[in-house]
Amino acid sequence: AIYYDSYSGSTITAERVKQHDKANTTFWCVNEIEPCDPNEGRRVDGSCNNLQYPSRGASHTPFARALPPVFSANFEPKKAADGSDLPLARFLRTSLVSVGRIPSQMFTALAIHDFVFMSADIVSLHDTVNYIVWKPYCCAERGKTDYMCVPNQIPPDDPVHRFSGQRCLNMTRPETFQTIGCIKNNTSPERIVSSTPLLDLSVIYGNALQSLLRRGRLFEGGMLKFEEENGRIWPPKYPTNGHLICLSNQRPQETRCHLMPEDGGNTLGGINLMSIWFWRHHNFIAKNLAAVNPCWTDDKLFETARDINIAVALQIYYYELLPVFFGYDNMVKDGVITPTGGFRDVYDPNVMPQVSLEYPFVLRWVHTIQNGLIKMYDKDGYYMKQVPVVNLTLRTGYFALDDNLDLMTQGSFRQGSDNVDYTADFDITEIGLGPQQYLSDLMTSDLAKNRLFGFQPYVKYREFCFGNKVKSFDDLHGSIDPERIEILKDVYKSVEDIDLLAAIWVEKPLRGGYAPPTFYCLVIDQLRRNMVSDRHWYERPNRPNAFTAAQLAEIRKATIARLLCDVGDTVTRIQPRAFLKAGYNNQMCNCNEINGINYAAWKDATCEVESFWSKFVY
Ligand code: HEM
């Protein structure tokens, strides 16, 4: 194997690795990579995607940035233009975002589940685990001397906490190459995460080959390991009741906790559902491939099923999920999706397989349209019960209790998301981490992270995205409603002080879509980078083991409705466009009316030849 410095991407000596071993920093600071083979498929650890720079694309490698960072002295968050402190994050959150639970009549909860699943592919848990598990004390005396503690102050006239008397929200800094000890502290903080940067279903297959081999593969029929409990198929579970990750399981009755290659599947309610479905979907594909190609080995079945599963996830993100928020025509116009359905090859080896730090950051806008409840329905569409979504975090056991999984599955395409309307659900803004933290406002944390990441002011991103310079609050007319401009004027002294996320919260939706334009811009910037920088991009005809035109045409048929028909519990009827609520032009129908992938397109003629000759073996 060859050793690379995770930060710089250059090779390092065994001696240097030993130093990292001694300092206990090898996991984060070093990538150990087997030599690349240009003809092999996508590696689980993301390495060798770029053949010139093999470690780029692997886990814990640096983010890119759409715009360079700005910090104050000692890399602390920047000040206002006049040198004073910027307004408190909690104050901005309560001033700019109203609180309420208003169900969307358009988008389903399923759309939000898929959105968060897409985010989970490229981020990791540790920044949040840090303040839930390791540093729950940032608001206490002890927090004052801990560099990692950056709690958020609550102003005395806070609309909620003027009554409770609470003045502090726990939070820690993002981990960086500097905080971990990979590089010196006198450089600009560079965030570090354990996921691979490209969209490759990290939540299902993990980020390291060893974990996939140990925890994932069944080594039979190309399948992932699975268990059956009460007639339902699950990923394997941790053998002990007391496993650390499913902290919110209510014992003794709730014991299930997925033992997947990575722990992400156990985190949020939406991620958990999607993980169960995509885990099963791998095996669904493997079985179909094995039926068409009885001569294929376990390895061949596994790798092809994985490649198809990833392609299905990508097809659904790009062609079904995001168009409902962004507008199909906008995405075609901006070159994110192709209307022709054929191959598409925009690969450029000079663009590194990286994620912009802005991308997962702005995805936090989706917190504003997360409904606080998971509603459950039976298969005939009768409402049964509900549970606060914040109580499902780190609680896989609840999904396995009684028929909850069936009811949540049915609910996912019947319940609305929260409306796109400048309001956020009160559970998200007051108790975001459920029983795991006494108080938490996810969106205050989001705004505070905006500053810790050192993002340039909103006006600079407007210029980056749309080319227009914003010099005064009045220049915001047209992009932001007048009453919200008035609030911005009240809370910020200068237009240059407006934080990126604060403005995204109040921007008017883009024409032809339902999302803030700057959010759209920074998301599609990354969606395009994915296609350009990923040598294994599923639409490419020139990649190792590329799909044939006929196979790609089958992938194009993938929809979330078909996926739920194939692997969702009790799903026999669903609306064809299941990210949108059922209704006119999108009536519920029988699953057999919903088109799916025909695996005959993967038929391998050599299997027939083999089976012909096998008759003459004796
Ligand atoms: C039950 C609902 C949800 C809960 C409890 C939740 C919780 C959290 C928490 C605790 C954080 C870390 C905040 C911090 O930086 O300190 C976070 C970040 C984030 N959330 Fe959510 N979230 C929810 C829904 C969603 C949804 C629907 C999306 C969809 C896109 C989403 C996307 C993100 C992203 C992209 C981040 C940033 C992650 C990172 O950069 O590490 N979340 N969320």
From TrEMBL:
Domain of life: Eukaryota
Gene Ontology MF term list: heme binding; metal ion binding; peroxidase activity
Matching Gene3D superfamilies: Haem peroxidase domain superfamily, animal type
Key words of the record: Heme, Iron, Metal-binding, Oxidoreductase, Peroxidase, Signal
The keyword Iron is annotated on this UniProt entry: yes
GO biological process, one term: response to oxidative stress
Record carries keyword Signal: yes
SUPFAM superfamilies on file: Heme-dependent peroxidases (SSF48113)
Binding site for heme b: 367
Stored Pfam families: An_peroxidase
Stated name of the protein: Peroxidase-like
Organism: Trichoplusia ni
Taxonomic lineage of the native organism: Eukaryota, Metazoa, Ecdysozoa, Arthropoda, Hexapoda
